[in-house]
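Sample 1 of the test manifest.
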Amino acid sequence: MWNLVVILQSALSGLLLGGVFALLGVGFSLSWGVMKVINISHAAFGILAAYIAYWGLTLYGWDPMLSLLVSIPLLFFSGLVLHRFLIQKVTRAREIVVASMILTFGLAIVLENAMLFAWAPDERLITTAYSSRALFLGEVILKVSNLIGFGLSMAGIGGIYFFLYHTHTGKAVRATWQDPEGAALQGIPLNRVSMIAFGLAIASAGAGGVAMAYMYSFNPPAHNHWLIFLFLVVIVGGVGSVIGTAVAGLMIGLITGLSGAFLPFQWINVFLFGLLMVILLIKPEGLFRK
Amino acid sequence: MAKTTKLSLIGLVFLLALFPLFQPPIHTLSFLFLVFLYIILAESWNLIGGFGGYLSFGHVAFFGIGTYTSALLFQKLGLSPFVGAFPAGMMAAAVAAMIGYPCLRLRGPYFAVVTLCFAFIMDLIVKNWWFLGGSEGIHLKLVEMEIRLSRSIFYEIYLGLAAVTVIFVRWVEHSKMGLGLSAIREDEEVAQTLCIPTARLKLQAFVLSAFFPGVAGGLYAYYISYVHPDVVFDISVSILIVLMALFGGGTSWAGPLVGAALLSIINELLSTYIKPEIARMIYGAMFVAVILFMPDGIVAFVKRKRGYA
Amino acid sequence: MKRSTKGFWTLVVIVALSWIQAGTTLAAEKPILIGGSLPLTGTFSATGKWVEKGYQFWAEEVNGKGGILGRPVKLIIYDDKSDAKEAVNLIEKAITVDKVDLLLGGYPGTACTAVMPVAEKYKMVYVSMGGHMKSFSQGYTYSFGSPPLMGEWWYLGFFQWMKTVPADQRPKRAAIFTMNNPIGVSLMDSVYKGCKDLGIEILIDEKYNLPLTTADAMIAKAKQMKTDLLFANGMFPDGVMTLRACKSLDYNPKAILQGIGSVIPEWTRELGKDGDYVFSGTSWHYKLKYPGNDKIVKVARERFKEEEPPLYFGFGYAWMQTLQQAVEGAKSLDQTKLRDWLRKNEVKTIAGNFQFDEKGLPKPFVYLTQVIRGTVELIWPPEMRSHEPVYPKPPWK
């Protein structure tokens, strides 16, 4: 069990996995932190993008990465529409966090069952020509599909970071989050900014979904499984922090992988959730929020 | 409460109690049994959730703890679950006291997530521990009674428990404790400066909110005869409880009652008459619609429409 | 409307609706009503849908031939949303509101296990996959597994076949990874017994919780300890991950046994060549030489465009066949008569001919299957063999 190869293998696989968790989590974290919207339907949009990639591949032979050209704009637009017509309406509620949770919960059910109705509950896998190829680092093996998923995640997270810190709109988004009144006084159109941020969050969910699809099988109800890991990553990383979520995702992936080398597998999830509870009780703002 | 409202409610409970005598289809009794269960769960949840503003997303864990406690007492000691439900409730309350103490120091969504974690962990612990039946579950001896009689008995017990829970929650709402809780909900810092014992109140509310689900769970073990984590630690029940209470409106005692009853009935109607996926879509759309038009819940909406504050 | 009056009217509406429901079923006396629930939405819907299709195909066929005892059959299948509590509720609805004549089996095992005591209480025959040995050991007299899905028997076929392989070619060291749920736990029974019988050393024996996030650590361990027999006791998503991990980590045991993921069509469809050579067990296979299987294959190909009829499509059909024979044999819809008939008589289904014991189970049997070039073939028993097994498993390319 203390074999170096096993440990290294588990650690690296876990890390690659963690990157994908991170991408899926970043949008979730963003919408929670900036717009105070806990978007329960986040993972469901990820599944939608996974289906687009699947159908693109099986019907037209498109590489899943190409399908992103379709899903990202589509999901971005959906995010804009959702925010404008649904989410903005619940800002009236006394408790926007609660109201947004209920709203997006309903949305998740609608989306899941719409996909179920359209595409049946059959399990789907994304298998491309290079899916089974692997890179060898000595005795440690890295699957190409995992590497692609990881690469996509890093690109996505990088893109979001760039947007938030180096573009005008992105800075406006951050300003809105840190100090809504101040931002409004500066003439920042709060609603428009939030809309764009939300669109971005949903689009990133799409990218995250495709990255997940490289590694896991999926069908409409699968988003429920992904959701709990979203919470895990976002809380550990600190709500609203892109870097925090990214690091947290990697960490959690690493821990998941490594604990497989040391603990009986039965107890991995208990360990993870226990860890989450401990972190929450000690430092709820997450490990990386300043 | 206005005298007429009080009388109508008492009348309703009375009618419901007499209902089994009219020999309705047994399924209606079972259906109402489930409605009563959700009323018990949502109402007691509301003590900490709606009143206190601390949304516990792991409340199903207390139901599950109650179920397992009474199931184990029955299986290992032969103690009838009708009696065992009480220690089951105490056990749930005890666990709530233990984890409430550290968890209630968290606010808002963090409290929600930590309680959700707690529910997951309970589910996993039971699945991994052979003593608790592990992932095979516990098979209990069947209730030795003719089915209509046993269903009617469970129906009456749950009706009673639901009534007790509702009355209790209403009493709390109008008590000092209730006032303290709503102060906490509105602004906890201010409440503290007003010398309201926030930590104590929160813990009390949390423990009380766990007791009733524990008792209900204790009885449920006998009702269903087969206890398994997937059934009694089901996270979707947890989420449903929160939704029912908030759907009806968390700030009043009537909200969870209305929410639980309405959602259960709508769910039943949808599944009976409409294709499954479409039924689920309508169900989801309903949440969206309600939160758009009645963001503080149905009861608050109705109250406002009628000119109450 | 006042809150309390709203509550009162709600009650009136419920009562009225249930009376209306009861009334409408009274008017349609003629058909034989067969009712119950299946997971048509939610986590288990992928399989639930196939059971439904199996039931529907059987009903169509039977009605085309004039029904049972001269009456047409009508199916009432509720959606239990993959929730066992709903399954319990809905079976009671079928029994007491729709007043069905016969019950139909649910899915998965947890739901069946929860429903069996209810069927027992109402004294109605319940034919289903069951919930493994524990569910059949509770003394229920009205439940029958025809065929059952018995994790405890799942690998019997494999070990029986392995006995015919020369001793020096058999695997010596096993790695076992099992999902932590009733199915997984029951699968382990046959693994332990079989390994003991054949002198196979168990080097790794671990359970994991669903959903599985990564199989890499498991397979890395299995490879490092030089095990040459892998038991991947899981379902489809984790089975896929395990297989892919085997391939990418270049782990080449002599044989891989997979729990119940490899029997759904997605296995061959989605995994393609990677899913080849995996062994599994099954209680039914369309290549079995029992009458009726050719029909099943035809319907699956023409109507559902499936090259191979899915397992639960066949199961659904077989369970209905059992009910049909019981009714026709006992010439009655009286549940106790049906139960007694099933106890005494042999039932002939597409899955085999069953004689039930006092538990409601037939004699232990399981067919060994292997996925060979994209098709699930029967390997054992030898008289049912449809293809020679490929052993040891060819290394990954």
